[in-house]
Structures are given as structure tokens and as C-alpha cells.
């Protein structure tokens, strides 16, 4: 029998730090409200208000996107974003997927407003108070906030990634990583799927999994590090897992090196600072994405950025501006293994440059569902984190929440982007071996 949240006990405690007010449809901690877009708010409300019932995908789709027809992938992305905002340490910790049935949320308890204030030691201010009472209230609230702040900061520390480095007899170095234990365990069990079919040798490869989505970054190893011309990053979902290496074997030789990708027909240099690249694979079809990042250093650890995203035309002969986005990036003082640098990104805008008719006329393929999910992620989240995994002169590999892997190549004469990110003598926080590499041909 359904045990719905009662009107008098309208605050659901989801974890030690997170609460959801079913009357206001608000996710919050003692430090403040956690921003949710409309879909996230309605989906979480429906799950919490119906706990512990299992809600099917159709119910959640109608809750999050009323009077709008969307694909199931929109729900998957929303659930994924909610898990990130709730700081799940493993898949299903708070939002649980029941195979072939749907989702349910696991909460600790249901609270009234008075019970919440008693639990968190945050007294409510009475309407009639003298100055002494008000001062006592302020001091008590400040002390409580500081106490909880210490605990909350500990809970909001950078995500702990699970990772493992493997070296094989063919001089391959493979790094498996995921923020979720279940996904990490799957990667370790599926090692042969990634390595044996490709008959790989002399490669550096990073493999990431989150829910149903995979991302791979790969390059040839040389004594000096990664061969820039062989650096590729590919994002795909589980349905492509069995065919990924056969498809890549046919496609990658046709892709120009990152450093040689130009977006202007007259090849005029763009003084952007950084150029990045990745590939989406969906239903056996590849789409190459190229971006230029224009960056303004605000202080020693903060950048304002504008990114222009390009899509190839029908014959892959030119990259054409399709959208742009921007915001702020702030570098953290500390990073956890296996990362060299951690950056918090705060997206502020996203716009399409080309209309659907323009794209059709120019021979640009419609966006794949993966691209739509990525763009929606940039629009809907207030913050996401990027992690630097590998760096060398002119080249860096980043892993970003919601985006997967991207290779970044120094471009133009703006020195600020790479200079701060290249400090130190480590290529990676991991013991990656290049010395045994054979010469690249």
C-alpha cells in the first residue's frame, strides 16, 4: 500500500544532508536551496510523494514533461542529473532503478517543519521578539549553520572516482574509471570487450562508464607521450558496445588530426586559446564535434569562457558553427586521485546558431540523441565538474560530467588557458609508462 507523504509531514529527508519540501517542491540543505529545473523538480516530487512505490517511466515522463512528447533518454538524463545533485556515491543509493519496472526514491524519514528545525538545530524566529531574543536567535543560528557547514562541506567534497590502471604485454596502458561502484565493477568484468576485439598495441586508453553511457579516450604511445595526431575521444551508449572497435577501425582513419581541423574556409587562424574535439557514436553512425574556446582570465583561478561548437557538413569538408555557450570556470585548490586538476564550471547560456532549415541546406545532420542530451545538460544544470587526467605540451585530456572525454589542443596565442593548467612536471597522477613504447610510424 502506498505510503504518501502526509501534509503535516511534508519534508522528506533523503540523506544526511539533503531534504525535499513536497509543498514547495524544493530540494535543499541547511545551507540553502539546490537549484532544479522544472523536469527535475517534478520528477523528484513525484518519486518522493509516492515513496516507496515504484513509478514506471511513462508516469515520470508525464510528470516531468506535461503536454510535451519527449524520448525516454530525457528521463534518463534527468535521473542522472538528480543523482549528481544528490551526490550519490553509487548508483541507486537514493534513486533506485528497478529493472523492467521503473524508479523509486529511498528516503530516511518524513518530517514536519518543527521536526526539521529540531533535527537540524535551526530555531524558528517568533513574530514577537525583543532585541535580546533576536540576538540570541542570530547567534544560535550562526552556530548551528557553522556546525552543519563543516559536515556539509565534507559531504560536498569532490566526487571519489574508482579507478584502476592496467598494463598489458602489448605495451597498452588502460585506465578504467567511474564515479559509481556498480559501473566500475562492470568495466573490470568487461575488459576483454574493450581490448581483445580491437587487437590493440602501444595505446594509452581511458575508459569511463556512467549508467548506460560510455566514453573512451585513446592515443598512440610514443617515448615523448601521446601522439597528438592519434588522439581521439568517443562517446556512445551500451547498445554499441559489441561493435565499437569494428566501427572505429573504419571511421578513425578518415578523421583529420585535431591540430589540423580548421573551421574557416580560408584557413584563417582563430585566436581562441583552446580547441577541443570528440566523437558521438549512435546507431552505427559517427558525428564529429569540434569546439573553439575563447577564454578571459579573471584571476589566478577563474576564467570566463565562450565556446563555439562546430558540426561537419555532409561531405566532412568543412566545420560550420552550429551553437555557442558560455559561463565561468573556477579551478579547485585540491584534486583527488586520479586527477591532476579539478575545475567547477558554471554554465550561463546556450544558443543555437543555425535553424533546422539552415542545417538541412548546409548538409548538417540533425543532432543525435546523445548530442541533445549533452546540450540539455549544459542548459539545465547550474554547475558541473571537469577533471584533468593527462597533459603534455599542446595537449590535454579532460573528463567532464555530462560530456565524457574531450581532447584539448592549444590553439592561437592566448597563453592563459594552458599556462596555469601545465604547472608541475607530471603528465598524469597515474604511473603511465611511455619509455617502452616503440617508435610511432
Layout: helices, strands, pairs:
Blueprint: E1 11-13, E2 19-21, E3 26-29, E4 32-34, H1 38-49, H2 57-64, H3 72-85, E5 95-98, E6 102-105, E7 109-111, H4 113-120, H5 131-155, E8 162-167, E9 173-178, H6 181-189, H7 191-195, E10 203-210, E11 213-222, E12 225-226, E13 232-237, H8 244-251, E14 273-282, E15 285-299, E16 302-312, E17 319-331, E18 341-352, H9 356-362, H10 369-380, E19 384-392, E20 395-400, E21 404-411, H11 416-421
Parallel strand pairs: 9-10, 13-14
Antiparallel strand pairs: 1-2, 1-7, 2-3, 3-4, 5-6, 8-9, 10-11, 11-12, 11-13, 14-15, 14-21, 15-16, 16-17, 17-18, 18-19, 19-20, 20-21
Helix pairs in contact: 1-2, 1-3
What does this structure look like?
The structure is a single chain. The protein has helices spanning 38-49, 57-64, 72-85, 113-120, 131-155, 181-189, 191-195, 244-251, 356-362, 369-380, 416-421, and strands at 11-13, 19-21, 26-29, 32-34, 95-98, 102-105, 109-111, 162-167, 173-178, 203-210, 213-222, 225-226, 232-237, 273-282, 285-299, 302-312, 319-331, 341-352, 384-392, 395-400, 404-411. The protein is built from 11 helices and 21 strands. 32% of the residues are buried. It has an 8-stranded antiparallel beta barrel with strand order 14-15-16-17-18-19-20-21. The longest helix is centred in the first third of the chain and has 25 residues, at 131-155. The protein has 441 residues and is of the alpha+beta class. Helix content is 26%, strand content 33%.
Amino acid at each position: 500500500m502506498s505510503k504518501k507523504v502526509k501534509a503535516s509531514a511534508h519534508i522528506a529527508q533523503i540523506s544526511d544532508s539533503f531534504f525535499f519540501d513536497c509543498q514547495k517542491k524544493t530540494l535543499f540543505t541547511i545551507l540553502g536551496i539546490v537549484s532544479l529545473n522544472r523536469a527535475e523538480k517534478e520528477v523528484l516530487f513525484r518519486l518522493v510523494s509516492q515513496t516507496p512505490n515504484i513509478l514506471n517511466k511513462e508516469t515520470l515522463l508525464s510528470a516531468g514533461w506535461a503536454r510535451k512528447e519527449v524520448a525516454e533518454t530525457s528521463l534518463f538524463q534527468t535521473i542522472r542529473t538528480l543523482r549528481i545533485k544528490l551526490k550519490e556515491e553509487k548508483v541507486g543509493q537514493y534513486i533506485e532503478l528497478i529493472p523492467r519496472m521503473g524508479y523509486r526514491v529511498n528516503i530516511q524519514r518524513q518530517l514536519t517543519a518543527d521536526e526539521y528545525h529540531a533535527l537540524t538545530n535551526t530555531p524558528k524566529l517568533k513574530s514577537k521578539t525583543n532585541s535580546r531574543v533576536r540576538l540570541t536567535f542570530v547567534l544560535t543560528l550562526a552556530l548551528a549553520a557553522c556546525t552543519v557547514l563543516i559536515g556539509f562541506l565534507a559531504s560536498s567534497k569532490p566526487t571519489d572516482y574508482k579507478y584502476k590502471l592496467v598494463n598489458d604485454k602489448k605495451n597498452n596502458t588502460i585506465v578504467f574509471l567511474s564515479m559509481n561502484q556498480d559501473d566500475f565493477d562492470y568495466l573490470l568484468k568487461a575488459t576483454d570487450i574493450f581490448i581483445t576485439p580491437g587487437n590493440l598495441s602501444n595505446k594509452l586508453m581511458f575508459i569511463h562508464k556512467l549508467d548506460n553511457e560510455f566514453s573512451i579516450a585513446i592515443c598512440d604511445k610514443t617515448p615523448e607521450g601521446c601522439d597528438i595526431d592519434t588522439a581521439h575521444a568517443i562517446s556512445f551508449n551500451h547498445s554499441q558496445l559489441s561493435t565499437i572497435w569494428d566501427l572505429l577501425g573504419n571511421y578513425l582513419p578518415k578523421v583529420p588530426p585535431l591540430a589540423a581541423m580548421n573551421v574557416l574556409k580560408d584557413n584563417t587562424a582563430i585566436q581562441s586559446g583552446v580547441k577541443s574535439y570528440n566523437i558521438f557514436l549512435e546507431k552505427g553512425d559517427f558525428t564529429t564535434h569540434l569546439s573553439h574556446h575563447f577564454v578571459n582570465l579573471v584571476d589566478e583561478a577563474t576564467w570566463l569562457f565562450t565556446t563555439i561548437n562546430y558540426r561537419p557538413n555532409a561531405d566532412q569538408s568543412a566545420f560550420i558553427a552550429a551553437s555557442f555557450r558560455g559561463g565561468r570556470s573556477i579551478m579547485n585548490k585540491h584534486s583527488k586521485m586520479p586527477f591532476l586538476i579539478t575545475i567547477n564550471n558554471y554554465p550561463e547560456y546556450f544558443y543555437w546558431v543555425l535553424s533546422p532549415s539552415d542545417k538541412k541546406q548546409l548538409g548538417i545532420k540533425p543532432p543525435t540523441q546523445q548530442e541533445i542530451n549533452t546540450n540539455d545538460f549544459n542548459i539545465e544544470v547550474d554547475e558541473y565538474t571537469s577533471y584533468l587526467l593527462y597533459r603534455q605540451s599542446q595537449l590535454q585530456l579532460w573528463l567532464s560530467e555530462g560530456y565524457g572525454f574531450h581532447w584539448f589542443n592549444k590553439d592561437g596565442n592566448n597563453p592563459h588557458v594552458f599556462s596555469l593548467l601545465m604547472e608541475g612536471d607530471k603528465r598524469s597522477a597515474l604511473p603511465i609508462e611511455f619509455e617502452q613504447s616503440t617508435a610511432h610510424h
